[in-house]
Amino acid sequence: MTNIAVFASGTGSNFDAIIDAIENGILDARVRLLVCDRIGAPVIEKAQNHEIDTVVYRPKSFENKAAYETAVLEDCKQRDVDFIVLAGYMRLIGPTLLKPYERRIVNIHPSLLPAFPGKDAIGQALAQKVKVTGVTVHYVDDGMDTGPIIAQEAIKIEKNATAEDVKQSIQAVEHRLYPEVIQSLFIKEESL
């Protein structure tokens, strides 16, 4: 079983999907830690309800990004974290975490990267009037949604769809695809 840390900043819908996938035997992992960078984020209560260790740090209270990530790295080491899963974590990861977890940090993004990286990918897609968008799971590097793509799945944007409609369609794909892709990475790593 793989020990994972989930990094999240918000409501935690992908956190819920990961927990559900573990409980339903789809994902052979144990969430050892939730790392959150926003005090009061709803995901914190979700983790506590599942008795998952939680750390909430305000990055601005650290001297710099390296100091913040050093504290997070120590928390991960203390819990024997093998793999980091970003689930709505709204910070770029720096070398302090990237080096020890090379190719063991993944992210999910609500677009078909490289299209619409960064914040509000759904709003960007609607503004560009594209007919198709989707979901991308990728390895994390030091850029914004620039890491190597692992998996993608497209969704059609229906005529007159609102941002909420598109968000619901994307989340339905995310909540199924992310745990499946993470599990496939664990299987691949075990076979090496």
TrEMBL record:
Describe the task this protein carries out: Catalyzes the transfer of a formyl group from 10-formyltetrahydrofolate to 5-phospho-ribosyl-glycinamide (GAR), producing 5-phospho-ribosyl-N-formylglycinamide (FGAR) and tetrahydrofolate.
PANTHER family tied to this protein: PHOSPHORIBOSYLGLYCINAMIDE FORMYLTRANSFERASE (PTHR43369:SF2)
**Formyl transferase N-terminal domain location, by residue?**
3-182
Q: Where does N(1)-(5-phospho-beta-D-ribosyl)glycinamide bind?
A: G12, S13, N14
Ribosomal protein as UniProt keyword: no
Q: In which pathway does it act?
A: Purine metabolism; IMP biosynthesis via de novo pathway; N(2)-formyl-N(1)-(5-phospho-D-ribosyl)glycinamide from N(1)-(5-phospho-D-ribosyl)glycinamide (10-formyl THF route): step 1/1
Q: Which organism is it from?
A: Halobacillus dabanensis
Which UniProt keyword terms apply here?
Purine biosynthesis, Transferase
In short, the EC number is: 2.1.2.2
One GO MF annotation is: phosphoribosylglycinamide formyltransferase activity
Quote the Pfam families the UniProt record gives: Formyl_trans_N
Asked if NAD is a keyword of the record, the answer is: no
Q: Could you tell me what this protein is called?
A: Phosphoribosylglycinamide formyltransferase
Domain of life, per lineage: Bacteria
Instruction: Give any single GO term for biological process.
Output: 'de novo' IMP biosynthetic process
Q: What's a single GO CC term here? A: cytosol
Question: What InterPro entries does UniProt report for this protein, alphabetically?
Answer: Formyl_transf_N, Formyl_transf_N_sf, GART, GART_AS
Task: List the residue(s) that the UniProt entry marks as the site Raises pKa of active site His.
Answer: D145
EC class: transferase
Which reactions fall under this protein's catalytic activity?
N(1)-(5-phospho-beta-D-ribosyl)glycinamide + (6R)-10-formyltetrahydrofolate = N(2)-formyl-N(1)-(5-phospho-beta-D-ribosyl)glycinamide + (6S)-5,6,7,8-tetrahydrofolate + H(+)
Q: Locate the residues binding (6R)-10-formyltetrahydrofolate.
A: K65, M90, R91, L92, I93, N107
Q: Locate the active site.
A: H109
Write out the similarity annotation.
Belongs to the GART family.
